Amino acid sequence: MKTEKLLEDLETLIEASNRIPMTTKRMVEEDEIMRIVDSIQESLPLELDESRRIVADKDKILADAQRQADTLIAQAKEYIAKLTEESELVKQAQEHANQIITNANQSSEELKASSIQYAGDVLKYVENNLEKTLESLRQNRESLKQSNRSE
Length: 151
Description:
The protein is mainly alpha-helical. About 90% of the residues lie in helices and about 5% in strands. The protein has two helices and two strands; from the N terminus they run αββα. The protein has helices at about 1-15, 30-150; strands at about 20, 25. A two-stranded antiparallel sheet has the order 1-2. A hairpin with a 6-residue loop joins β1 (about 20) and β2. α1 runs antiparallel to α2. The longest helix is centred in the middle third of the chain and has 121 residues, at about 30-150. The radius of gyration is 57 Å and the shape is rod-shaped. It starts with a helix and ends with a helix.
């Protein structure tokens, strides 16, 4: 900033100086110009150092920001991968549960069919026994009737 002020002072000094007639040249105070030039030479290294420091700070800030952005991106990718993995696990668990339900329904139908078949077989067996018993009872009754007639 000091250099800018010194350059403005130099410009003002030149503009305020007298022109040499018939030329574009001007007469200036050598001591005054040398004082301003010396001051510029003194201030430039300081301002250049400050500029270099600012650029270095800017580069450091940008590098830090890039690292933070990379970290955030990596975290986001991990989170997405985790969600995807969890989603895949949920999907697999749902498919497994659906398979268990399907198997249970199939087993239930098979058991129901077996039970009906078994109950039918038992009832047929009981029916046959009852028919034999009924036939035996009819025969015994007939026999009783005939023995009662014979007397």
